[in-house]
Amino acid sequence: MGKRLFFYIMLMLFVCLSCSPKRNDIQFFKENGMYFIESRIIKIKFDSLMRCNVYRKAENSLLSIIKDDNVPHYIVINDTIVNNFYVNEEKIDINNINNEFGQGKRLKVSGTAEGPGRSLIEKTILCDIYEKFPEAALLNVEYRNVNSTPNLFIEKEVNNSFKLDSSLVNKDSDKNSLWILQGGAYNARPDWILPVTDNFAFDNYQGPQIENDEIGGGLPVLDVWSRQTGFFIGSVREKPTLISLPAAVDENGFLNIGIEYNRDRIKFDKVYITIPMVLGVHGGDYYNGLRTYAKIMACKGFAMMKNEPSDPVYEAIWCGWGFGPGFETRKMTDMIPLVKELGFKVVTVDFGWFYDNGDFFPRDDTFPNLDEDMRKFVKTFHDNGFKIKLWLTPCVAGPVLQKEHPEWLLKDKDGKLVQFINYGSKIAYLCPALKEVQDYYRELIRKFIGDWGYDGFKMDQQLINAVPRCYNKDHNHENPGNSFESLPDLYKIIYEESVKIKPDAIVEVCPCGVFPSFYKMPYYNQPVSSDFKSQWQIRHRGKTIKALMGPHIAYYGDHVERYYKESNFASMIGVGGIPGTMFVSRPEDNVEFLRVKYPCYLSPERKKHFEKWLDIYRNNTLSNGEYLNLYDIAFDKPETHVVKKDNIMYYAFYAPEWDGDVEFRGLDDRDYIIYDYTNDEEIGKVNGNSKLKVHFENHLLVKAIPE
Question: Is pLDDT of 1 > 90?
Answer without folding.
Answer: no
